[in-house]
Every structure is written in structure tokens, then in C-alpha cells.
Design a protein that fits this description.
Elements: H1 2-11, E1 13-14, H2 16-19, E2 22-26, E3 32-37, H3 38-46, E4 50-56, E5 59-63, H4 65-78, E6 85-87, E7 92-94, E8 98-101, H5 116-122, E9 139-143, E10 158-162, H6 163-169, H7 192-198, H8 207-212, E11 218-219
Parallel strand pairs: 2-8, 3-11
Antiparallel strand pairs: 1-6, 2-3, 4-5, 4-8, 6-7, 9-10
Length: 220
């Protein structure tokens, strides 16, 4: 049975929309610890290292992988638009929103990682000087107080800036360049990437677990 589930997992072909989905991972004590992509989540389920946590009619239910395949068939018949789907030649599987590790009991990290991805997410890909939204490859990170003036690489001194605004500001603080920050940069209390995800209705079922683990989850 285990071998057949693993073969099934390898044969799954996510639809285009499913490829963009993310899955919240809980430890065995139901505490949020990280976010993974769909393929990683399915692999954990197929290896019987995790189970699906599904929000249904106001309650959370637990399913092993075999049971989730059965539930997916029901969902495909009666509520196909409510889910993203992974397909094989024989079956379709609803993408789980949450999985729980059965043997992992480590606690989540309490610090939000200071990295480019989280800074872009915190600022919503908006230039913090002109306010316009840009693709990631058209943004840079700006030291509000320039490094030449002792400015540090910390949450409170780094913001997203478009190329035009970054060039205009140069190596000066904003007031000397005749510019003003739209938002004061702060350190997020939890992963800003998660805040972006929670705006998507598909991930509202994450809220209870993130409120319980109010610190950041680790993104992989």
C-alpha cells in the first residue's frame, strides 16, 4: 500500500494553478512551522510522514493520504470549484491547504528571517518613495540612512525602491533628496509572505494556526 501511494504521488501532474499553491505545515502539536510547495506536501503524505488537516463546515478534520484520496473524489463530484487539483491518468486529488507532521515536534522559529523576499513582501512590491507597484526584478533595496552615513542593514532602515527613485535619492537621506517615505519601515511580527497569502481566500483556514503560533513560520 505504501509503495503504491508513493508511485501515485510521483505520477501526479499539478494543474497550472496548483503549481502556485502553498501548503501550511504543522508539527505534531498543531503548531505552524513552515510553508512548502504542493509537491513537497504530497511527498510527505505519500511517505506517511504527514496527514491532511481539512477545514470543513466550521471544523478541522484529519485524513491520511488514502482517506484524502477518497475525500477528493467526493469533492470532485460536488464542489470542484472550491479546490485546486492535481491529476493522474486515473484520479484527481484536491490540493491540501494544511498538513500535519506525525513525528516532528520541534517548535517554530520565533524570528522572521531578514531577507530580500520578506522585505519585498512587507512592502508589497511597492516603491516606498513613489508608491507605485513593480515586478520584483524592477525593484531594489534602499538604505534609508545611507551606509556611508552609518546606516545599518536592518528592518527599520531597508525599504523597496524603484530604480528611478533609487537613482534620484542617491547616497543621501530622503529629506536631503526632497523625498519622503510612504510607510515607516518596521520589523514584521510574523512572516510578511504569510500576510500576503492570507489575503487569498484559499488560505483563510491557516488563520487559526497562525494566531496560535503568533510568531513567524519558516519559509522553505
Amino acid at each position: 500500500m505504501l509503495l503504491s501511494l508513493r508511485r501515485l504521488a510521483k505520477a501526479m501532474l499539478p494543474a497550472t494553478s496548483a503549481l502556485n499553491c502553498q501548503v501550511l505545515v504543522l508539527n505534531k502539536h498543531y503548531m505552524a512551522i513552515r510553508v512548502v510547495n504542493v509537491r513537497r506536501a504530497i511527498s510527505l503524505l505519500a511517505k506517511q510522514l504527514a496527514e491532511v488537516i481539512s477545514f470543513e463546515q466550521g471544523q478541522y478534520s484529519n485524513y491520511d493520504f488514502a482517506s484524502w484520496l477518497e475525500v477528493s473524489e467526493f469533492k470532485r463530484q460536488f464542489e470542484p470549484q472550491a479546490h485546486d487539483w492535481i491529476h493522474t491518468v486515473r484520479i484527481s486529488v484536491a490540493v491540501p491547504r494544511i498538513v500535519r507532521l506525525l513525528f516532528y515536534d520541534h517548535l517554530p522559529r520565533r524570528q522572521v528571517t531578514f531577507n530580500r523576499r520578506n522585505i519585498y513582501a512587507r512592502d508589497g512590491n511597492h516603491c516606498q518613495y513613489c508608491g507605485k507597484k513593480f515586478p520584483t526584478n524592477e525593484l531594489s533595496l534602499d538604505h534609508v540612512v545611507p551606509r556611508s552615513m552609518g546606516g545599518q542593514a536592518i528592518w527599520e532602515n531597508i525599504v523597496c525602491a524603484c530604480i528611478k527613485c533609487n537613482v534620484k535619492k542617491g547616497g543621501r537621506p530622503p529629506h536631503e533628496a526632497g523625498m519622503k517615505l510612504i510607510n515607516k519601515p518596521i520589523k514584521p511580527k510574523r512572516s510578511p509572505v504569510l500576510s500576503v497569502n492570507l489575503a487569498d481566500g484559499r488560505y483563510r483556514c491557516w488563520q487559526q494556526f497562525l494566531d496560535h503560533a503568533y510568531w513567524s513560520v519558516e519559509l522553505k
